[in-house]
Amino acid sequence: MDASVLQNLSIEQIIDVLKEKVGKEETVRFLLREKMGISTVRLGTGPRNARAFCEALSSDGFSIDKEIRDIPDSPALIALDRGINVDVVDVSVKDLGCPAGARYKEVCMRGLDLGYRLCPPELAYQLRRQYVNQPVGERLYLAMKSVVDSYGNQRIFAVGCDENGPYFGLDRGGLDEFWFASRRFVFIRPRRMN
Questions:
Q1: Which of 52, 60, 76, 125 has the highest count of CB atoms within 10 angstroms of its CB?
Q2: What pTM value is reported for the model?
Q3: Nearest to 159 by CA among 53, 12, 78
């Protein structure tokens, strides 16, 4: 099949075409995720705590949810003290094997079962800073250990872009919170040794 034909197909149509060649839909989805959804994010650069990150993002023109500014600085929100690159992948809850949606605990467990790792909180700040061409309407949630806001609620970070531009936000992060199949989560993908 000509590559130009594939460019005009949706992901689901490409999966159907490749299923005929490969045989298993799970294998096709895994290969597509591995090839299409990976980016590299640099950690350990810039500010060192949540308050400083918010100030830096604000001065760079990013919109920040008010609740993030209220998260107390804690050791869990401290940046690495040296720069490293990490590969990240964003996958939908459906891609994780949950076509009817899943609770947050299941989202995280499925990602871990596939060999991904949970994100440190710093990744959210750095992803927001470094993902400058995020499409309007996209919102990515970090698969991470929840942080506690000033009201005692478990929350996770999200980076998105709406008609007002890129923003940095919080969303519900309780283990029993339900997420629809279309929601996309960011995980760290361990680097392969050659």
A1: 125
A2: 0.76
A3: 53
